[in-house]
Task: structure prediction
Amino acid sequence: MPVQAKKSESRLDTSPAVSDEIRRTTCYMCACRCGINVHLRDGKVRYIEGNRDHPINRGVLCAKGSAGIMQQYSPARLRKPLLRTGERGEGKFKEIEWEEALALATQWLGDVRRKDPRKLAFFTGRDQSQSLTGWWAQQYGTPNFAAHGGFCSVNMAAGGIYTFGGAFWEFGSPDWERTEMFLVFGVAEDHDSNPIKLGLSRLKARGVKIVGVNPVRTGYNAIADEWVGITPGTDGLFILSLIHELLKAGTVDLDYLIRYTNAAWLVIDAPGDADHGLFARGEDGEALVAERATCALSSRKRAGVKPALKGRFALADGRFAVPAFELLAHKYLDEQYAPEKTAEATGVPAEQTRRLAREMAEAAFQREIVLQRPWTDLNGERHETMIGRPVSFHAMRGISAHSNGFQTARALHLLQILIGSIDCPGGYRFKPPYPRPVSAQPKPHGKGACAGEALPGPHLGFPEGPEDLLLEDDGVTPVRLDKAFSWDAPLSAHGLMHMVIANAHARDPYGIDVLFLYMANMAWNSSMNTSGTMRMLSDKDENGAYVIPKIIYSDAYSSEMVAYADLVLPDTTYLERHDCISLLDRPISEPDAMCDAIRWPVVEPDRQVRGFQSALLDLGARLGLPGMTKEDGTAKYRDYADYMIRHERRPGVGPLAGWRGADGGKVGRGEPNPDQIERYIANGGFFREHVPEEAAYFKHANAAWQDWAIARGLQDKRVENVFQLYLEPLRKFQLAAEGKRSPQPPQTHRERILRCFDPLPVWYPPFGDEGATAGGFPLHALTQRPAAMYHSWGSQNAWLRQIHGSNPLFVPGAVCDEAGLADGDWAWVTSPHGRIHVQVKRMEAVNAHTLWTWNAIGKRSGAWTLSADAPEARKGFLLNHLISELLPPRQDGLRWSNSDPITGQAAWFDLRVRIEKAPAEGGVTQPQFTAQTNPVAAPSGPLTYGKEWAS
Amino acid sequence: MTSLPARTDKKLGLAIDLDICVGCHACVVSCKEWNTGGYGSALGDADPYGDTPEGAWLNRIHTFEVTPPDAPAQIVHFPKSCLHCEDAPCVTVCPTGASYKRGEDGIVLVDESMCIGCGLCAWACPYGAREMDPVAKVMKKCTLCVDRIYNDNIPEVDRVPSCVRTCPANARHFGDFADPDSAVSRMTAERGGFELMPEMATKPVNRYLPPRPKARAVQEAQPNGGAQAADGFLGWLDRALERLG
Result:
């Protein structure tokens, strides 16, 4: 007889209490920085949800964010400062008191600062507090500081800033509400993830076409209306082919080009002269243009000038000059960029390239947007409307992580500018504080580091020619350990973190005494050549001393890097700390609003840990660093929170823009407000100030925008931002390589600079391709981060590791057939640098010549308090073992970095390989490493989180 | 064996949009974090930091590759949880009455105090939507967040299942399929929402919205400017600039 369930129904409580309190802060499960509501119950985290009011995520939250509970209670959390007792890499430590740890660090750092501050290399990972850490390093006086941008996406950032004063992600985003066509290049589904998902959803609802350009068709590309399965490293060629088609059809916005770019500027045509290829300038230094009607030369700034875009014009000295646009048109109309000619290299059929160019032109010009919204430009001209070219783009690591990535990023921005779609309705939109062109950016500083003295300016900046490089007096030797801003990587605006350990180990250009790292897993997935890096970190000299003498590391968890540190400063979790997501750093603004945010301790730490930034300020005070010490020698700031409130970078401008002034009534500029953090907390952890409608578009030329930004401390004066289609600084490097201006690069570098530093965007094959096919490496290999796992720290997360606990190598079907591989088979994958033993999975939705896997799933055995035989260690793997930080040796005997020759961006995705079927070899991936010991207790037993709240 | 209600007043369920699901797993983990501290025992995780971690999840994403003959191969992400069937075989097979379908809203639940962990319901479910908790050894399944959707302690706007509340792509929608005017009913009608495996005759309440037709083909303008002009690119440029004035 059937049983009835009525009893159950009546017993069910559908309205149970959820939490005692909700505290709103900022997520840190990845770099998106979404707003979160942390529900607390009985002092524990009950539930984390997205903050509906927050500008970044508007209520939604990704898998990582929801798994924050498991990060907060991870068994791998460090508990106390650690002092190494075993050998480097073993993971054997003793716990020490904070006072002892800070005293020791102060002694090590103080000795270096008194003798030669260059001997400290201070590099930070994904910490998002570079505004503080960079300032600290500047006060300390070492030239050797950077964050992780050099191995992340500096090609995107620098390519954009040099071209138009912006870039993607934090710099700007598509106009999701108005765009009519969206193309996304090389974006894995981890990146800017909630805003992009929200945006794609809007596009789908509006029926807007989404085109995914990516060798791998997962994530965003999986739902794209059209997929361009491009061959890695050829995006630049594909884009230039699109430009060829647009020029051929005349579908470019000439009015936009004349108004906002250097298309009309005259380029000196005097081969052999020291200024050949530079802009012709008047006596006032301003570039010249030629009047269309009269051919007369004129300053580009003369009111009402109607400049020519073609022609050959005599200069006062009898030489000739040509508008940049004519050079550009001539270059890209060349048949080498015709879709038929590029199809073989890119893997994109000619007809697809041609059709996409036509669709782009149709969207931009046939579906023009006209907003009845008057505005005034920087020349004082009033415009009654805002004209939109509704085609938008987004790009990231897929185009960035190649040795041709800077020029590829430039090519993409050139495409955007030619159709007039930068900061217009339906196009790309700047996010405050951007735009910020090179002229409004600092130059790099690092020369003349003196014992006991601060550097005169910030480390990272934007050189405008060889004269801005950081070279010793010989004009060749790099000032910096990572060789940033040297002939190896002149425009390395984010430094070259991937070269720090290798160069320190090789003592090239010099050895160091202390390596100080924060939140950067350099002994594992954040290094190229991981096995080699682990060796370098533990290598000893002939006296038995470590080649890199002292390593200080700060991390919250028992990572692979912890095992290689001598002294570990345990950081807090993201829910236990103060942070500022600052407009001085990497802000969270949206196109319509300037925004910043904080983190604050929504949970009290139950361990003897300190937020790294507070520990750093403490160290700064102990070292007596300027700005961190009062006149009586005591600490100026109590902790990071105190710094966030009281530090002023410029008068009235500090880390946080909201609620400044004594009563909290000022925005951006104003004296410190002691209640500022409370005001942030009351507002949900963030601050937002809307951009006025008149200033919402054309920010690069919009007077209302500039005045608004000046009033709010985003900039101090009006900044002209002329888009640099033709990038003169690159030409200056070419002239130096031609021997026409000083300083000059060594002979070894000249051919490369001449080839790669083209002032107009150019495509050249990635360096990794050189001889690859002939050398037996016919395939490409790359990694993508999954949406549900960010970086190495996710593996300790009991929930996320059930989603991505190991990573297969995805192999195109045709490659499987040729190699005799089936799902689950094992294979050796070999590169010019090394080989790995991995398990394969067949896949068709991928470029036919590309192998790929998920990034940073593989772990060193024993790390993160996982069991020694965890799938992450035995089945997971890193491609990093196949990638060298150096290019294969060449005849010149130089150590050429595996990087973009312009920016020094790590060229991860240049990797070329071959694959061969292999025995299972015990069914584990290779290489394997001895298990590291954990300084914290291993967990045991099952997890039943929240059982006490069962209803 | 347990009986089903003859009819339910409402048919609460989910409309899941396959056109925009990017497979990010946001719904999967949000479900886990809400429900591990919510209805019933915690969603256990056996060997959470060990060699074979295995936990109970009420919602999972399955990833398939499709290789159409006339288009490039592509990945399809398919989120799957209990479909709250009208003729739920998991309920009728339950020997203790632990599995039941609510008369008022159609939600299928397990009363864990009556569950003996026999697993018959999981065998009976054609969708594989039930999971035995590896720690508590009771049967777990989607509750449609029955402890959220009527919860007076939660703001009204948030009284939706946790997976719907969090979905970054807006691919998940919650509502009453018995009401033809509800948002989920309307979008199902407009988009051709379908039942999963109707041949199993379980009459699932949840609906899946198929991928939309690919974005419209644009009206391609006939290019006649630029280098295609009779007088070549530079000739076109002259005329184009004249038009600018």
